[in-house]
Amino acid sequence: MRIGIFTECYKPLLNGVVNSVIGFKEGLTKLGHDVYIFCPTYTDTKPNDKKVIYCKSWQLPGKSGYHYIFPLEKKVLNIAKTMDIIHVQHPFIMGDIASKTAKKFNIPIAFTNHTQYDQYLHYIPFSKKFVKKQLIEYIKKFTQKVDLIIAPAPGIQRKLESYRIKTPIFIVPNGIEVKRFEQKSNLNKINSLRKKYDIKSSDRVLVFTGRIAEEKNLSFLINSFEKINKKIPNTKLLLVGGGVEIDKFNQLINKKNLSTKAIITDFIPYEDMPDYLNLATIYVTASKSEVHPLTILEGLAAGLPIVIVKAPGTGDIVTNNKEGLVSKDNINGYAQKVIKVLENKKLHQKLSITAKKTAQQYSILETSRTMLKAYEKTIKIHQNK
Fold first, then answer.
1. Which helix (H) or strand (E) is 276 found in, with range?
2. What is the pTM of this model?
3. Do 2-175+363-383 and 178-362 have matching folds?
């Protein structure tokens, strides 16, 4: 099967969507399929993969890394029309391009809804209620242009169904290369990171991985850590990631006199992520904006108990008292959950063992096989229209 994945972001930009695309490209290729990535041009990209098709684009202002993508050139269209299926990752500029391309060449099209878009309205400087209503209407109209919606988790499926969307929905979880995160880092790497971030061997490290941004509920996490650290002084919080709001959260950390305890790393190479997870005692996140986060899957594979706030996305992966603990949306309650795992070695061990077992079901080959079932369903729906 020739599969065309249309995405508004790709390497060198790194985020959850990019990592998901990379993972499925690798998994589907291993299963014997031809996978083409249609993505924006990047000035610092050196094309070395003939199956990555760069589309003429212009970088948007700011530090987001996203591009405005121009209508596809003839040479790109000539490749696109040979696809057996189009799989688009975003409903916006590339979504419009992908849906028009699919319609023009009568190609089946699927759309993965990766994001709870209404959780990003804090970036809008005017009427959020109005924008949310318009956003839902836009999503509804876009989904009418595709044959199948792929939902990475039941939580986002329920949200889409609450919009009264009629397009069929099929669940395909995100996947990771489990073995990469299972492997323990060598002692030299661990010691180097401990030295870099002034982490003593006796310290208990809480790790968060992801974008340093308001939608990740990091103010909640830092406020919770303040209480955790008062109870257990040898704890450190490592926020592994970068983003445009690093200064904002560093100011909060400094205000609480936690500058030697809570550390934001900025962007790190993705290949180093297993080493950072290997530093940790517990994986922590308070995010309520996730769909099916790869970061949680990576934490599970590394054998880390996960402490989350009850919410769709993270709650679709972590079950209370199995892979981790689930807290109500309450700073004191969340802090107590983390303290409980830190103070109870038997509980920590139990959660760690279950985390590793749960991670196995999210191996990229297994989720790629599920994705193929979604593609088969997409083609069948398209043929019956």
1. helix 273-278
2. 0.91
3. yes
Are the C-beta atoms of residues 173 and 16 closer than 8 Å to each other? no
Task: Quote the mean pLDDT of the chain.
Answer: 94
Residue the block writes with tokens 């299926």: 85
**What is the amino acid identity at position 39?**
C
pLDDT tens sequence across 240-254: 999 989 999 999 999
Give every strand in the sheet of 2-6, ordered side by side: 52-55, 34-40, 2-6, 85-88, 109-112, 148-151, 169-171
Q: What is each CA distance from 203 to 53, 235, 250, 346, 367, in whole angstroms?
A: 46, 6, 21, 19, 36
Pick from 254, 248, 184: nearest CA to 211? 248
Q: What is the pLDDT of residue 129?
A: 77
Q: Which residue has the tokens 């100011």?
A: 251
The CATH superfamily label for domain 2-175+363-383 reads: Glycogen Phosphorylase B; (3.40.50.2000)
Which amino acid belongs to residue 314?
A: T
| Distances 343 to 319, 339, 346 between C-alpha atoms, Å | 20, 6, 9
- Residue 132 has a pLDDT of 82
What is the spatial distance between Cα 135 and Cα 117, in angstroms, rounded to a whole number?
8
Strands of the chain, DSSP E: 2-6, 34-40, 52-55, 57-59, 67-69, 85-88, 109-112, 148-151, 169-171, 204-209, 235-240, 262-264, 282-284, 306-309, 324-327
The sign of the CA dihedral 28, 29, 33, 36 is positive
Q: What is the predicted pLDDT for the residue at 101? A: 98
* Lowest mean pLDDT, pick from 131-140, 158-167, 269-278, 299-308: 131-140
How many angstroms separate the CA atoms of 351 and 233, rounded?
Answer: 23
Which runs of E-coded beta strand occur in 160-253?
Answer: 169-171, 204-209, 235-240
- Domain ranges in the chain are 2-175+363-383, 178-362
Is the pLDDT confidence value at 335 over 70? yes
Please state, in angstroms and rounded to a whole number, the distance separating the CA atoms of residues 360 and 340: 26
178-362 folds as Rossmann fold (3.40.50)
